[in-house]
Amino acid sequence: MPLLRAESEKLSNNQLISGVIDEIIERDDLFSVLPFTRVNGKAYVYNRENTLAGADWLDPNEVVNESASTFTEVVAKLRILIGDVDVDKFLQTTQSDHNNQLAIQIAKKAKGMGREFSKVLIQGDSAVNAKQFDGVAKLVTSDQTIDGKASALNFAMLDELLDKVPNGADILVMNRPTIRAYRQILRATSGTDAVMQMLPAFGHPMLVHQGMPILMNEFIPMGEDGTCQIYAIRANELDGLHGLFGGDNAGIVVENLGTVQNKDAIRTRLKWYCGLALKSTKSLACLKNVQIGAGA
Questions:
Q1: Cys bridge to 140: 39, 78, 125, 286, which one at CB 3.0-4.6 A?
Q2: Cβ neighbours around 60 below 10 Å, total
Q3: Residue 265 lies in a domain
Q4: C-beta separation of 252 from 272 below 8 A
Q5: What is the DSSP string of the chain?
Q6: Nearest to 97, CA basis, from 12, 13, 7
Q7: CA separation (Å) from 219 to 76, 121, 226, 229, 249?
Q8: Which stretches in the chain have pLDDT values below 70?
Q9: pLDDT value for 271
Q10: CA-wise closest residue to 162 among 216, 232, 108, 96
Q11: Angstrom distance (rounded) from CA 114 to CA 83
Q12: Strand partners for 173
């Protein structure tokens, strides 16, 4: 009797390589360069200039008028980003020959939390979800917003956007389709899109506009009409945009909670007490309603 396929397959194993291939991929270069400040309490409080004290020109013996500067108190609260991972002990013990089940689940949970932070970094709105912090789109003021009026992206728009940050922006932030549109403009005007510079913070050549690095964030939404937003950001802890964290670590904290009470599983908790602060409103500007073109 010949060896049947069904029987032969019982004697053969498929080859399984270690690791898990990434399929959920969104780039956020902004997260990688955003500075963070430690917060000792539950909130970060600072003051912005409101009005400046004036001065008068007087003749001799005239009364000197008194005036004082005023300030606006700003409160940026820490928020809780948290999640648990349960891994069955039987599966961890018997099926970790090629891939450590617990390590992979922790790594993927951390990736998911980082993805959520990157999304809220742009789209966060505490008026919609009070458990989130306000993101870049909510923090930018109307005075710092330029309306592109559904016009096609051009260099003059970007120059005007950078002028909105008087102390100097550090980065431009665009989504992937907008960067493609920017490259199209470069090719149309100079015959090449190889306007790259090596930046120490990244370790590889970056696309730049007038020496300003262009960072990708794929959580900047596209409108149904093909319009989007571009942000110019001054990122620092003195007068710019920066992140906040509570506790001893500036990143995600991993805690082993031990055995779950009602099942034979190990529970691991990942958490991050985080937030976002914009010191000066002049450190953030937005070019909205810009048409990137049908071919982008």
A1: 286
A2: 4
A3: yes
A4: yes
A5: -PPPHHHHHHT------SS--------BHHHHH--EEEESSSEEEEEEEEE--------TTPPPPP---EEEEEEEE-EEEEEEEEEEHHHHHHS-SSS-HHHHHHHHHHHHHHHHHHHHHHH--TTT-TTSPP-HHHHS-GGGEEE-TTPBP-HHHHHHHHHTSTT--SEEEE-HHHHHHHHHHHHHHHS----EEE-TTTSSEEEEETTEEEEEBTTSPPPTTSEEEEEEE---SSSSEEEEEESS-SS-EEEEEEE-TTSSEEEEEEEEEEEEEES-GGGEEEEEEEE--TT-
A6: 13
A7: 22, 9, 15, 11, 25
A8: 1-28, 96-98, 191-203, 293-296
A9: 93
A10: 232
A11: 12
A12: 215, 231
Residues 290, 148: contact at Cβ < 8 Å? yes
Give residue 92's domain range.
30-48+72-291
Amino acid sitting at position 295: G
Residue written as tokens 């909670």?
Answer: 257
- 211 residue type, one letter: G
First CA to last CA distance, the chain? 63
Q: How far are the Cα atoms of 158, 159, 203, 262 from residue 210, in angstroms, in the given order?
A: 10, 9, 19, 60
CATH number at residue 243: 3.90.1690.10
CA atoms within 13 A on the CB side of 259: 6
Pairing of strands 265-278, 241-246: antiparallel
- In terms of Cα–Cα distance, which of 239, 233, 273 is closest to 47? 239
In a domain, 122, yes or no: yes
CA atoms of 108 and 267, how far apart (whole Å): 15
Q: What is the pLDDT of residue 27?
A: 64
Query: Would you state the structure tokens that stand for residue 29, as one six-digit string?
Result: 């270069």
pLDDT at residue 194, rounded to an integer? 58
Domain assignment present for residue 18? The answer is no
56 occurs within a structural domain? no
Q: How many CB atoms lie within 10 A of CB 18?
A: 9
How many structural domains are present in the chain?
1
pLDDT at 121: 95
